Amino acid sequence: MIKFKLNKKYIFLLLSLSLVLFSSCSSIGGYVNGKTLNKKEFGPPETHTLMFGHMDVEDAPLHLPVNNTAKDYQEYIQMNPEKEPLIFLPIYFQGSVMSFYPMEPGVNLRLMFSRYSIMRFYGNYTHTTVYQFWPFLGWPESSTLWFSCKKPGLQYIGSYIRTRSGYKKDMAKDSAKNELSALEGIKAYYKGTSWETVIEKRIEELQNEKSN
User: Fold this and answer.
1) At residue 122, what are phi and psi to the nearest 5 degrees?
2) φ, ψ (nearest 5 deg) of residue 53
3) pLDDT, tens digit, for every residue of 127-154?
4) Within 10 Å of residue 116's Cβ, how many Cβ atoms?
5) Hey, which end of the chain has fewer CB within 10 Å, N or C?
6) What does DSSP say about strands 73-78 and 49-57: parallel, antiparallel, or unpaired?
7) Environment class of residue 69 by beta-carbon count within 10 Å: exposed (0-12), middle (13-18) or buried (19+)?
8) pLDDT, tens only, 74-118
9) CB 110 within 8 A of CB 83
10) Do the bridges between strand 146-148 and strand 125-133 make them parallel or antiparallel, or are there none, so unpaired?
11) Rounded to an integer, what distance in angstroms lies between the CA atom of residue 44 and that of residue 50?
12) Which DSSP helix (H) or strand (E) runs through 204?
């Protein structure tokens, strides 16, 4: 646990800066083995799997730094020995939407590290608490997440909530955090790639299901 105390005016400047930075782009993150993703190299829907969903944090009033969108910094490790080894930082979008990049079926991702911070104001000072999980080391066991690419095309992994003791599946009915809202959150990022058409087609299907 790490604690910081900052003057209120500096917090305001920091908040303003993060809002400006995030308003200038639609996503953050997306690193493989320390390198930035190149969308021109994304595999197509015919041979690759695009996993996407929601990752949110429970009872977190304010989240600062780079993970301003998903509110939860995560790193995954590829566990299938028959596939290329990699460490991956997901792509985070506005709200709780996130996605991995298109990968080959059979890729098995396990959450290796996770952290998030909660900042609270107390008069002229702030109190920031940083929570860290090390699922790869088995601490805590409830924080372990596994995602496997099953078949080519889109794969919705669901909606998850980060608690102080681990992760839990969001089982709320009629939740706004669903496949449709996740697709709408990622479509701008994949515009101009081979995934644009399949994403728009799936959005249309879900909208039709919703209206019927």
Assistant:
1) -135, 90
2) 175, -150
3) 667 777 887 676 666 667 899 999 999 9
4) 22
5) C
6) unpaired
7) buried
8) 899 999 999 999 999 999 888 789 999 999 999 999 998 888 766
9) no
10) unpaired
11) 9
12) helix 196-211
The phi and psi torsions of 68 (rounded to 5 degrees) equal -60, -25
Q: Is 46 exposed, middle or buried (0-12, 13-18, 19+ CB in 10 A)?
A: exposed
Beta strand 49-57 pairing with 153-163? parallel
Question: What length is written for the chain?
Answer: 212
Structure tokens at 114: 């996770």
User: Residue 141 has what DSSP assignment?
Assistant: G
For tokens 């409830």, what's the residue?
Answer: 142
Q: What pTM was estimated for this model as a whole? A: 0.77
- Enumerate the β-bridge partners of residue 161: 56, 168
Question: What residue type is assigned to position 92 of the chain?
Answer: Y
Measured over the CA atoms of residue 192, residue 194, residue 195 and residue 200, the dihedral's sign is positive
Residue spans of beta strands (DSSP E) within the chain: 27-32, 35-36, 49-57, 73-78, 87-93, 97-99, 108-122, 125-133, 146-148, 153-163, 166-169
The CA distance from 7 to 204, in Å, is: 48
Residue type, 136: F
CA separation for the pair 94, 206 (Å, rounded): 20
108-122 and 125-133 strand pairing: antiparallel
* In contact, 69 and 92? CB cutoff 8 Å: yes
DSSP letter assigned to residue 72: -
